[in-house]
Design goal:
The complex is a heterodimer of chains A (about 140) and B (about 750). Chain A has about 140 residues and is an alpha/beta fold. The model of chain A has no long low-confidence stretch (mean pLDDT about 85). Chain A has 7 helices and 5 strands. In chain A, about 35% of the residues are buried. In chain B, strand 3 and strand 4 form a beta hairpin. In chain B, helix 17 packs antiparallel against helix 18. The longest helix of chain B has about 50 residues. Chain B is flat. The chains are: A alpha/beta (about 140), B alpha+beta (about 750). The interface between A and B is medium-sized, with 24 and 24 residues.
Chain lengths: ~140, ~750
C-alpha cells in the first residue's frame, strides 16, 4: 500500500490515540499529518467537512467499542463518502479485542482494509506498508 | 527360608532342625527346636542346641559340623537337663559348584518327661521322615497331606505350581476350596470310605480350580500313610496333571460322537422283499425306527409291520409292483412301531425279481414323520387362525354396538346436524362444553346455528360452508370463557362433512377442550423466550467483559513497548504514569467482574418488611449530605408503603435509579424524580420517572441494561448501574422496562410478583 500522507484516529481512549500517534510518526516518512478524536461524532464531522475536497492519501484508524457510536456505526455514517473516495481513503479497524464476529463483519465490509488488535505495532503495519524504505526505519 | 529346599524341615512339627554355616556357626533353627529352650530369644542370636546340650556334647557337635565330609553322619549327644541321649543326624549342604556351603542337623522331637529311649525305633523314624520330606520336596508330581476334614497340612512345590497358590496360602485352606464344585462330593465320599477302612486306597479323575480361575484336570491317588508312620490322622494324595490328556480325549470323544450321530441319524433306509412280500433284508435304520429287533422282522411279511389303516393300500401297491415290473413306484405309508407309535415313510420301489443275484423287490424310503407332523401342525394352526378370525369379526360386530356408549362417554364433544343444520344428535360432553346460554336450549330437531350469538353464528356458518364446499374436514382453534368468572378455555373444533357417496348428507361438529395442552404450549414458549434472552445476555456479557479486560492490557502492552525506546524525559514520565493508570483500570475491571459474579450468589438473604419512605430518605441522605445543596427533588407517591422483600436488593434498585437521575439531570430545569409504588392484582408496581436528559431509544433501546454500556460521553460512568439494577430485579422475580425521550426524561417501570 502507498504510505498515507494523513492519518485520522477515532477512539474514545485518549491514551491509545497518543500511543498510535507516537508509533505512526516514527513509522511513516514525514511530512505526515495526524489528527485524533475521542468523540466519533466529531471525527465523522472532520472527515466529511475537511477531507472531502482533498485527494491526499488518508488512513483512518477506527476503534469499535465507543460509548456513543460504535465503529461500525461510524462506517455506516461514512458509507457514501467511503464509496466515493476508495482510491485515496482506507480504513483500519483497531480494537482491543477482536473476535470472530468482528472479523466476519470486517471482511464483509468493502471499506475495511484491515482489522487489527491493539496495541498497534510496527509489525502489524509492515504487513500492509512494508517496502524497502521502511525496512530501514 | 521359604524358598529353600529345606523349607519342610524348617516348618516341621516333628523334627528338630538347625542349619550351620561353613565355619560351624548356627544360622537357623526351626520353631520346634526353639521351643525346647525356655525363654529362647531369636534376636539374641543364641543357639538353642547350645542351651540344650551339655557343653562337651555341643563342642563335639561343632567339631563334626565344621569337619569336611560328604555323607550324612550320626552322633549321640547328651541333653543337659535330663542327661539322656539325643541322636543327631548331620547333613552336608553343597552349593551349585559342588563345594560344601554349610551343614544342617536334624534330631527327633523329644518330650522332657518321656524321652524316646529306643534308638532303633527312632532311627527308623528319622529315616522315614527324612525320606518322606525329601520325597515331598523333590516329588515331580503334586503331593499333599490332608486331614480327614480336608485341611491341607503339607504340600509339595509342584502341587503349588499346578494350582497357582503359594504353600502358605494352601496351608490355610482345605482341598474342597480349590476343587471344582461338581467334584467335591465324590472326593469327600471316597475319602470317608478310605478313612473308615472300607477301601485301602482310591483314585479319581477330578478338577481343581487354578488360582487364575481355569480348570485343571488331575488324576488323584489317595492312600493312608504306612502303619509305622508317625501320624495316622491324615491321608497322602498324589496328584497327576492330566489336563492335556483330558483335552485330547475330549476332542476324540467329540469327533466320535459326531460320527455316531451322523450314521444313526441317517434317515435313508432300504428293504428287499421277495415276491410273497417277506422281508429279505432291512437296513439298520428300519430296526431303529420301528423298534423291532432284526430277528423279529426278517422272513416275516412286510405288511405285518404296516399300520393297519394302510395295509390294504400297501397290498395293492405290492400287487402293482409285481404287475408292472418296468415301472418305479412311489409309495407312502405308515409303520406301526413296536411301542405303538406311528412312523410315516415315503420312497420308491423297483421290481428286481427277475434280476439274477438279487431276485427281490427293492424299496428305499425316508422317515417323513417329522414332515407329516409339521404339516399337520400347520394345518391345525390354519384352522385355529380361521376360528380366531371369526371370533374377532364377531367382536367387531359387538363393538359397533358399543360405539354408541363410546359416543356418550368420550372426552370429545360431538353434535350431528343434518343438511339443513337441524340438530340430529349430540353427546353429553358437547352439552357440557357449550356456553350455559346455548347448553340450556340445546335439543334435537332445532337449528344449531340459531342458538349461537350473531358473531359466532357468522364464524361457524362460514366454516360449515367451506367444509361442505371442499368436502373435507376443517379444524380451527377457539377460546372463550364458559362462565363470566371462569378462566379462558381453549377449544379445538373440527367440522366434518358426513357423506354418502359424493353427497354431503350432514355435518358432524367435534369440539375438544385443549386448555391444558395450550397452557403447556404457552408456558413452553415463555420458557424458550426466557432462555434465549438469558443466553443472549450471557453472550453479550462474555463479549463485553473480554473487551474490557483486554483494553487496559492492550494499553499496557503498547506503553511497555514505547517505554523501551529512547524518550524525552517528559514523555517518559507521561507514559510511565499512563502505565500505572492502565494497570489500575485493569484492576477495576476485575473488581467489577467480581461484583457482578457475586450478584447471583447473594440469594439466601432473608426477606423483611421495608418501609419505602424510610428507604428513600436514607438514600437521599447518602446522596446529598446535609451540607450540600439538594440537587434533586424527590416526589414520592406510595400507595403501598411497605414491601416484604430482601432489603439489600431493593436498596440497590432505588439507589441506582435515583443516582442515575442525578447524574443525567438536565441543567436547564429543576431536576425531579417521581417515585410511586402500588399493588396491582398480585403484583407490585414501582415507577421511577425523571425529567433528565433521556436516552435515544431508537438507537440504544437494546443496550440500556447492557454491561459497560454508556450513552453519554460527557458524563462519567462505567455502565454498571443499570446492569446490576436489572440483575437485582430479576433475582427478586421481577421485570424492568424503560421508556425515554431525549431531553424529556426517562421512566423505569418495575413489576415484582
Amino acid at each position: 500500500m502507498k504510505s498515507p500522507e494523513k492519518i485520522i484516529i477515532i477512539d474514545d481512549n485518549i491514551l491509545n490515540n497518543k500511543l498510535c500517534s507516537h508509533l505512526l510518526k516514527k513509522y511513516f516518512p514525514s511530512p505526515l499529518e495526524i489528527v485524533s478524536f475521542t468523540s466519533p461524532e466529531q471525527g465523522i464531522q472532520h472527515i466529511l467537512s475537511v477531507t472531502k475536497e482533498k485527494t491526499v492519501t488518508t488512513l483512518l484508524l477506527l476503534d469499535i467499542n465507543m460509548p456513543t457510536l460504535s465503529g461500525w456505526e461510524v462506517l455506516e455514517e461514512l458509507e457514501s463518502f467511503l464509496s466515493e473516495s476508495k482510491d485515496s481513503f482506507s480504513v483500519f479497524i483497531l480494537s482491543s479485542s477482536v473476535d470472530s464476529r468482528d472479523h466476519e463483519r470486517a471482511h464483509a465490509s468493502p471499506h475495511v482494509t484491515a482489522i487489527l488488535e491493539k496495541p498497534l505495532t510496527s509489525i502489524q503495519l509492515d504487513l500492509y506498508f512494508k517496502t524497502d524504505q521502511h525496512i530501514a526505519s | 527360608m521359604k524358598s529353600d529346599p529345606y523349607s519342610l524341615l524348617s516348618h516341621s512339627k516333628i523334627v528338630l532342625f538347625a542349619q550351620f554355616d561353613v565355619q560351624g556357626n548356627c544360622i537357623f533353627s526351626n520353631a520346634l527346636l526353639q521351643q525346647k529352650v525356655e525363654n529362647f530369644e531369636k534376636s539374641s542370636g543364641n543357639n538353642p542346641l547350645k542351651e540344650l546340650l551339655t557343653s562337651t556334647s555341643y563342642t563335639d557337635l561343632q567339631l563334626q559340623v565344621a569337619a569336611t565330609f560328604d555323607k550324612p553322619k550320626q552322633i549321640t549327644a547328651l541333653l543337659k537337663n535330663t542327661n539322656s541321649d539325643l541322636l543327631i543326624e548331620i547333613h552336608p549342604i553343597f552349593d551349585e559348584k559342588g563345594n560344601k556351603s554349610g551343614t544342617y542337623v536334624i534330631a527327633p522331637d523329644f518330650n522332657e518327661n518321656n524321652i524316646v529311649q529306643d534308638k532303633k525305633i527312632y532311627e527308623n523314624l528319622v529315616a522315614s521322615s527324612e525320606q518322606f520330606n525329601l520325597l515331598f520336596s523333590y516329588a515331580p508330581i503334586g503331593m499333599l497331606l490332608v486331614k480327614p476334614n480336608g485341611l491341607i497340612i503339607r504340600v509339595s512345590q509342584s502341587f503349588c505350581q499346578l494350582v497357582g497358590y503359594t504353600e502358605e496360602e494352601l496351608l490355610k485352606t482345605d482341598f474342597q476350596s480349590i476343587t471344582h464344585p461338581d467334584d467335591i462330593q465324590m472326593d469327600v465320599d471316597l475319602l470317608n470310605k478310605l478313612i473308615n477302612g472300607e477301601i485301602p486306597t482310591y483314585q479319581l479323575e477330578k478338577r481343581y480350580i487354578h488360582k487364575k480361575g481355569h480348570i485343571i484336570w488331575v488324576l488323584l491317588i489317595v492312600t493312608l500313610p504306612q502303619k509305622e508312620s508317625l501320624d495316622s490322622s491324615y491321608v497322602i494324595s498324589q496328584v497327576y496333571d492330566i489336563s492335556e490328556q483330558k483335552r485330547a480325549l475330549d476332542a476324540i470323544t467329540q469327533s466320535e460322537e459326531r460320527f455316531r450321530l451322523l450314521t444313526e441319524n441317517s434317515f435313508d433306509s432300504m428293504t428287499m422283499l421277495n415276491e410273497q412280500g417277506e422281508c429279505l433284508y432291512l437296513s439298520p435304520y428300519v430296526f431303529k425306527m420301528t423298534g423291532y429287533r432284526p430277528e423279529e422282522m426278517l422272513s416275516k411279511k412286510y405288511i405285518q409291520f404296516v399300520h393297519p389303516d394302510d395295509a390294504p393300500l400297501v397290498k395293492i401297491f405290492h400287487e402293482s409292483i409285481i404287475k408292472e415290473p418296468e415301472k418305479t413306484h412311489k409309495h407312502r405309508h405308515r409303520f406301526l412301531c413296536k411301542n405303538g407309535e406311528v412312523a410315516w415313510v415315503e420312497g420308491y420301489a423297483t421290481n428286481a425279481l427277475g434280476l439274477k443275484g438279487l431276485n427281490a423287490i427293492i424299496a428305499n424310503f425316508q422317515n417323513i414323520t417329522e414332515l407329516v407332523i409339521t404339516t399337520q401342525k400347520i394345518e391345525e394352526n390354519q384352522r385355529l387362525f380361521e376360528a380366531e378370525r371369526k371370533k374377532v369379526m364377531d367382536e367387531v360386530r359387538l363393538s359397533e354396538a358399543n360405539l354408541k356408549s363410546v359416543f356418550n362417554n368420550t372426552e370429545i364433544g360431538y353434535i350431528l346436524l343434518d343438511k339443513e343444520g337441524l340438530i340430529l344428535s349430540f353427546n353429553k360432553r358437547f352439552h357440557d362444553l357449550c356456553a350455559p346460554a346455548v347448553a340450556k336450549r340445546l335439543k334435537n330437531d332445532i337449528s344449531f346455528l340459531g342458538l349461537l350469538d350473531e358473531e359466532r353464528n357468522r364464524i361457524v356458518s362460514e366454516y360449515i360452508r367451506r367444509a361442505i364446499a371442499e368436502g373435507n374436514p376443517i379444524s380451527y382453534d377457539l377460546d372463550y370463557q364458559i362462565n363470566k368468572d371462569s378462566a379462558t378455555t381453549f377449544f379445538q373444533v373440527s367440522i366434518i362433512p358426513v357423506k354418502e357417496g359424493q353427497n354431503v348428507i350432514g355435518i358432524c361438529i367435534a369440539s375438544q377442550d385443549i386448555t391444558d395442552r395450550r397452557q403447556a404450549e404457552l408456558e413452553r414458549e415463555k420458557l424458550t423466550t426466557d432462555i434465549v434472552g438469558r443466553n443472549r445476555d450471557l453472550e453479550q456479557f462474555t463479549y463485553i467483559l473480554s473487551h474490557n479486560l483486554r483494553a487496559p492490557v492492550a494499553s499496557m502492552l503498547g506503553l511497555t513497548r514505547v517505554l523501551q525506546e529512547e524518550l524525552a524525559p517528559e514523555d517518559k514520565l507521561f507514559f510511565s504514569e499512563q502505565l500505572l493508570t492502565s494497570a489500575e483500570q485493569l484492576d477495576e475491571v476485575i473488581r467489577d467482574l467480581n461484583q457482578i459474579l457475586n450478584i447471583r450468589r447473594e440469594v439466601s438473604e432473608a426477606k423483611e418488611n421495608v418501609d419505602l419512605h424510610a428507604l428513600t430518605q436514607s438514600i437521599a441522605n447518602d446522596l446529598f449530605p446535609p451540607h450540600v445543596e439538594n440537587s434533586l427533588q424527590i416526589v414520592t407517591n406510595f400507595e403501598l408503603t411497605e414491601i416484604h422483600i430482601v432489603k439489600h436488593y431493593l436498596h440497590s434498585i432505588f439507589y441506582n435509579l435515583i443516582s442515575n437521575s442525578i447524574k443525567f439531570r438536565r441543567l436547564d430545569t429543576t431536576p425531579t424524580i417521581r417515585i410511586s409504588a402500588k399493588r396491582q392484582a398480585s403484583k407490585i408496581l414501582l415507577t421511577f420517572e425523571d425529567n433528565g436528559i433521556g436516552i435515544d431509544m431508537k438507537r440504544k433501546s437494546e443496550h440500556v441494561f447492557g454491561l459497560y454500556k454508556r450513552f453519554h460521553s460527557h458524563i462519567s460512568g462505567k455502565g454498571m448501574g443499570l446492569y446490576i439494577t436489572k440483575a437485582h430485579v430479576e433475582i427478586l422475580g421481577g421485570t424492568i422496562t424503560v421508556q425515554s425521550e431525549v431531553n424529556k426524561g426517562t421512566t423505569f417501570k418495575i413489576e415484582l410478583s
